[in-house]
Amino acid sequence: MFTSQEVLGVRHWTPDLFSFALTRPAGFKFQSGQFVMLNLPERDGHQPKPRAYSITSPDYAEELEFLSIVAPDGQLTTHLQHIQPGDHVLVGSKPTGSLVHSALTPGRNLFLFGTGTGIAPWLSIARDIHTYGDEDLGIERKFDHVYLCHGVRHACELVYRDYLERDIFAEEGLGPLVQGRLHYYPSVTREAFVRNGRLTDLITSGQLFRDLGLDRTQFDPESDRVMICGSVPVNHAMKDICVAHGLREGATHRPGTFVVERAFVDHSPAPAAN
Ligand SMILES: Cc1cc2nc3c(=O)[nH]c(=O)nc-3n(C[C@H](O)[C@H](O)[C@H](O)COP(=O)(O)OP(=O)(O)OC[C@H]3O[C@@H](n4cnc5c(N)ncnc54)[C@H](O)[C@@H]3O)c2cc1C
Asked: For residues 85 and 80, what is the distance between their CA atoms, to the nearest angstrom?
């Protein structure tokens, strides 16, 4: 079942990437990191196909925010890219997904790996008070440090960069909580940037751990928890790395030390990442 929600704002980051905010349906509950189906109302006898979208807002937000690609000849995004404030988008009533806190066993460090629009669920998790814990609010401390790692081809695709590098730390309530605990780690593969390379290569070479000031060159199954969201090849490659480092895949019914968005993973052999 879908409900019609009003578009409150749209931001175009590049010609192929945009984010938008919708009114939150009454009684709509979700866990940070989950996705929901979206669609557009029928127009001129045409009804696009519904598509899955990670919710980028944290679970307590008043609005629902999303980040979208414009897929070439994409059924939905060919039309969705033109939405404007006041338009309506259909929102499914059953958010779901495995990229949630409850799929992980307790740990000290949370690594969030996203490529392209795969940053979407991390914007939700990284803004969720429950990711950190808050003694004043009686919320148990969860992770000491959160490392949000975003891999893209071109620097202009580093959406929310200013927010993650600066603005989030000035936010009332959340700012002091994430200060010194949320670490943003962007990398670009196809043009010069302060950091270059695929996230998978940065992990296997140990560079990522050195860059983050961690005293080791691979994941520590005792203290590290990993969440993965990217293209199918990236998910495969990341999963292989996690298993090689001694991590165990989790799910909501059986928490583990890493999770990958199952809906993105198929069973074909893994080509090179990115
Ligand atoms: C669990 C889940 C969560 C998702 N969350 C998001 C999200 O938060 N934001 C988002 O933009 N998309 C997300 N997607 C993909 C999304 O469902 C659609 O595929 C996308 O919006 C394009 O829809 P479309 O109908 O225009 O094109 P489609 O017909 O669905 O896709 C056309 C082609 O575009 C490519 N493509 C589709 N989506 C992407 C993408 N995100 N990045 C790179 N290439 C892509 C694929 O090669 C695909 O074959 C998610 C998919 C799943 C399964």
From this structure: 12
Structural domain count, the chain: 2
Q: What is the pTM of this model?
A: 0.95
271: in domain: no
Give the CA distances from residue 219 to residues 77, 99, 147, 248, in Å, rounded to whole numbers and listed in that order.
37, 19, 12, 12
274 located within any domain: no
Structural contact between residues 84 and 10, judged by C-beta atoms closer than 8 angstroms: yes
Domain range enclosing 31: 2-92
Whether the pLDDT of residue 264 is over 90: the answer is no
Determine if ligand 1 sits within 6 Å of the CB of residue 51: yes
Q: Are 18 and 70 in contact (CB under 8 A)?
A: yes
Please tell me the distance between residue 178's alpha carbon and the centre of ligand 1 in angstroms.
Answer: 30
Note the pLDDT tens digit of each residue in 102-151: 999 999 999 999 999 999 999 999 999 999 988 888 888 889 999 999 99
- Could you give the CA distance from residue 239 to residue 217 in angstroms, rounded to a whole number? 17
Lookup: tokens for 50: 């519904």
Instruction: Report the residue among 16, 34, 51, 153 best suited for mutation to probe ligand 1: largest number of ligand atoms under 8 A from its CB.
Output: 51
Say if ligand 1 is within 6 A of residue 39 CB.
no
Is residue 115 located within the same domain as residue 41?
no
User: How distant is the alpha carbon of residue 175 from its chain centre?
Assistant: 19
Q: Residue for token digits 């690594």?
A: 111
Among residues 92, 121, 138, the one where a domain terminates is 92
**Is the CB–ligand 1 distance for residue 263 below 6 Å?**
yes
Q: Residue 141's domain is classified under what CATH number?
A: 3.40.50.80
Residue 103 to residues 40, 100, 190, 249, 260, Cα–Cα distance (Å): 31, 6, 34, 9, 10
